[in-house]
Each structure stands twice: as C-alpha cells, then as structure tokens.
Prior knowledge:
- By secondary structure, the chain is an alpha+beta fold.
- The chain has helices spanning 25-37, 42-50, 82-98, 103-120, 124-138, 143-153, 156-166, and strands at residues 9-16, 54-61, 68-76, 172-177.
- A hairpin with a 6-residue loop joins strand 2 (54-61) and strand 3.
- It is globular, with a radius of gyration of 18 Å.
Amino acid sequence: SWPLPTLPVLYIGYHIPATDPDGMETPALGALAPALFGETSPLYKALVIDEQKVVTLQADAEVKRDAGLFTILARVRSPKDVAEVKKRIEETLADAAKTPLDEKRLKAIKSNLRYGFAGSLENPDAVAVTVCYNIAVSGRPDAMNALYAGYDKLTPADLQRVASKYFAPTNRTIVTLKSKPAGPAAK
C-alpha cells in the first residue's frame, strides 16, 4: 500500500537464468518482451489503446551476469481493473507457450531489435558504454555480436519453447502497488 493516492501498479517477475549470449534462451526472452507487451502487441493495443484500462504496459528480460527476472509492468487506470489486467497478462503468457508467433511478426521484431540497437550507438560514448556493459555481463566485448546472431536465428518454436519453460505460475513473483485505503482518520 502507498500512503498517497496513486494509480495501481502490477509488477510481475518470472525468474530467468543469467544472460548467455551464445545460447538461444537470452535472445528468445529478449524477443518475447516486445512480441507480447510492446507497442505493436495485441495486448498493448487492447489494454492501452482500445480499452484504455492501462496507462503503461512494458516488459523486459533483464540482461545480467547472474540469474534475473523477465519483468512485466502494468500501470492500471482503475483499481477495479487490476485483477482483469493480471488475468489477461497471464493468458497472453500462456498463449505464447501454446501458439507459435507469426513468422512475419517475428521478423519485424528482430528487425526492430537490431535497428534499435544500432540507433543507440549514436556517438563514441554510447559505443563505449555498450562495450563496457557487455564485458560486465559476459566477460567479453563481442557478446553483443553473439546475441544479435542469436536473434537472427530465432524461430517461433524457440519463443514458444522458452515461454513454456519460464512463464509458469510457480516461477513468478507478483507485486501490486495500490493506494492505502482512506480510513476514518483521513477525513
């Protein structure tokens, strides 16, 4: 509970392994975040644009040397919608484990990941930070090359396999931030 009025925030974390730029799980998790929760995803279009039940919907597969989290954050407009938003997030994750992503959509996501990364390297400082970050996470400056080679190889079956492996209810932690109920003393 938050002592002041706030929009509810739903934060869901699924435990994932340490980053392995040479394996297929790290790029698959990285692609699942925009595929399921990015601005072009069906869930984002439904909850944020069409129904306007959610102000913010985002996901991230943490890139870390140690095990981390695949996180989903939803800032919900009304407390009465939190349970429904949670249910729809869970349904989206379950569907990702059962139904392969469309090839055309996966190709667009991989392209966006690649060009977004390339666009972030706009000056020498950004390049240096990126190389240092890759060394910190993997111990190798060329880890980003391996990661993007992994993105290139991704198939819908890879995403489906990784989703079924990590997006289980027994592998998650859920935190909900909500306004503290106003009591008699608040009047």
